[in-house]
Structures are given as C-alpha cells and as structure tokens.
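Two folds, back to back.
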Amino acid sequence: MPGLPQIEDGLTRYVPRIIEAPDLGRAAVAMVLRDAAAGPEVLFIERATKAGDPWSGHMAFPGGRLEEVDADERAAAERETWEEVGLVLDDARLLGRLDDLQGRREGRPAGLVISAWVYHHAQPGPLVPNGDEVASTHWFPVSELHAPDRHVDFEHPAVAGHRFPGVLVGEPERHVVWGLTYRFLEVFFEAVARPLPERSWEGAQSSADAAERG
C-alpha cells in the first residue's frame, strides 16, 4: 500500500472530473488522512440516527451542503468538518481533489453534486463529534481497505433485496462504508494506482444513491 508521499504524488497527477451544473445543489466532503505506525489512516464518521434523515446511521466522510457563508465547495468541506467533529483543516495539507459525484434516482440524475477533497493532517488531536449530526468517529488504516475479509455485501433497509459493495470498518452490519462514500474510495484508489477489487453492484447502484440522498 502506498505511503503518504506516493498518495500525494498520485493525487497531484490526477485530473478529477468536475461537474459544472450551476442549476444543481452542491455539497462537499473531506477525506482526512493522518500518520500512524502502520501507515496512514483515514477518518470516517458514523452519522447520528435520526428519523427522516436519509443519511441516518451511514458511515461517511465529514461534509455537507454548500451554504451562503462558503466561498466554494472546499470551504464547505472544511467548515462542515469543523462543525461535525471539531477538526480544523487550516493546518492540514491539501493533497488533491477527487471526481465530483452525482447521486441518481431510478437511473436519473438527482439534484445534488458532491465534491471531495483529500487532506493530510499531521496532528489532528482529539475529535469531538457534535452528537446532533455525528454519533462517532473512526480512524481506519488505509491499507486495510484493501483486505479481502473487509469487503462485504451490504443491504440497506431502504433498498431491501439489493446488495451493494461495502467495506467493513468496525462493527458488522453497522460500520460499513458503501454507496457514495465507497465510490469516492474507488476514485481515490484509482488515483493512487491501487484500484479496489472489482465488485458487482447487481445493477442497483442507482438504488444505493437514492437511499443515501433520500
């Protein structure tokens, strides 16, 4: 698994796909890496469980919708990271940007484009989930995201009968990265020349996006 220098080199060379769609809503997330003895770790959050919230309980990167106070998508990702887990990214090094992704419903584009920015934070310090939006935080080894026993089929209650590619990063059935966050991981590993194992979406990727975006 590449270390931080290789990751930074890969992301520097990578040309992300940018979706220019001024009529659509925008959101942004931050993929934050930190140093660890066994190699870099990535930050995931477990979203709080709330009735009526399409993201309820999902594993994700910190982030959210672009607001009037945000100068651009990157500013939104940094603000949301601070608000959700108390992590300031001013001192972090920006490594690069991933492809913009657009959710789909019934095979049609949904009204939200999500951008992703990758950072390395040398000393992130203790995280403080805000409770209202984030139930818990999880630092997970980047190398383990490739481990075969971590790759699972995941079924979400909102799309019963369909199973999706996922990566187990904690408790089984609870801490599984899937859907749009899994797709961002696919882009990240393509950018650093270590693609994830090919997995079948069973023709249900649009259903997964619909479940995530509500």
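---
second:
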Amino acid sequence: MLNMPFGRSGRFFKGNMHTHSTNSDGVHPPQTVCAAYCDKGYDFLVVTDHFMAQYGWPITDTRRYRNNGFTTLIGCELHAPRTELGELWHIKAIGLPFDFEPLGENETGPEIARRAYEAGAFIGIVHPSWYGLTQNDARSLPFAHAIEIYNHGSAIEVDRGNDWPFLDSLLNQGWRLSGYATDDAHHLTHDWLGGWVMVEAEERDPDALLESIKQGRFYSSQGPEIHDIRIDDTAVTVRCSPARVIALQGRGSKSQREMGDQLEMAILPLKRFETSWFRVTIIDGQGRRAWSNPIWLTA
C-alpha cells in the first residue's frame, strides 16, 4: 500500500455545487447569488437552475460574474419522469454545453442523464432522501460520479438532508462513487452557507475544478477542515482543524475512531478496511462535520 498525499497541489478551493436563481425557482437573480457567495469567500459557485419547460429550459450563464478571486461552473438540475416512487427525477449536471437539448419526448431520467454525461458533464444523484429515491433508481445511473450526501436546504427545512447511509449502501455493493455536500440555496437566508466542497486543483479555473470534481479530488464540510490524509502499510494519519472525533467508516460495521478535546491528528489502524474501502469523518465541538470521499484499498 502506497503513501497517498491528500492533495497533490496543496491548494483547495471552496465551492457550492447546488444553487438556484430567478431563472427557475430561486428568489434572487444570478448576479445577486454569485455576488453573495463571492462576498462570503467562496472560490466558485454553480447555479443549477431547474432544466424544465416551465422555466424555458435554463442553463444559467454566470460567466460575466467571474473575477480574479471567484469563478463559476455551468450546470443545471435535470428532471424527467419517473423514479420508482413515481417522482420526477432530480439529477445534477455540471459542465454542460449551453446548446444541450431539452428533454425529449418520452425521454427518461437515466436517458437525459446519460446524454449529459456523454456531453462531458459531472453527474450527481441529488438529495435522495428528500424525495424517496431508491437504490434501484441509483443503480440505473451507472455512469454517475457522486451522491449528494448532505443537502443543507433539505436538512433545515424538512430534516431530510443526510445521505451518507444511502451512499454507504452502494459502496457496500461495490459501487465507486464520491459524496458531496451542498446548500441547495433558493433564498440565501436559512438555506445557504451550510455545506460545501473543498476541491483540490492546480488553479481556480472552471475546467480544472470540473476535472477534479469528476475524479473525486475534494472533501465536503459544514465547517471543519481536513488538512491531510496519509496512508502507509498499516495505518492512516489524519490531520485536521480542532475536533472532538476523528473517525473512519468502512464496509458494513467496520469503523475506527479517536475521541478527545481539540484533536488535530489521529493515527488509526487500517487492518479492518484492507480489503475494501474507508472514509474519514471529522466532528468538531459544535457538532459540525467534514467528510472525505471514500478511499479504496483494492484495485
């Protein structure tokens, strides 16, 4: 097993990958939304308006709101009939071309998602618990890159924002997916600044950020910082901002943890995880979490 540096470039960029504007059902115009996140120190934002006929099939163009310290990626939230429970699909597509065609007649959620994937987009499975997405639904998107494991709007408004168990079940079945945290902000009041990603990239460039997101080179957070994760033959060393829990979770019930006051490092044995995968969770004194993506210890 090789020693694995957590970030190849050592640079991480903070961003939100799920936000809405007045181009669909958000309260504020795109310029206001971008300015608000920029003012709060975010490095990038994706305005992901609902790609639906009632809104004119918007792929919101935010390029004019970029500046030297802030950039945007282009995306939307795809919808189509129907999930296993009869709901409209919600599928994140980031990196779409502006000429992406509207939903075709009789086109399904998996079909429009595959079309977006083939157009070069990152595909995320959005807030599964919010609308009762099933494991069978998720398995119909074998090309997806990630699951939305924390949705701040859903958590605050209806207590259905936490989806690590949904992703863990897929990981236990052999699926290799990342997990990302978002705001899903519509109002910029109660529903923002609650979950984000820290993306490792050489520079704050939309193409570089998109490639890193596709490859899972990021961690997610509600506040804590993960400074480093290094693996040797027997253990993983985690360095982070002050925490009360540093934990590893893996297949089934497999876990390891260190608990204390103002922990900034833990060295945890890997023997329980050596034939599958693990992920890192940091919990700070306020109960806020940061999560690594799953790390696989087998080819």
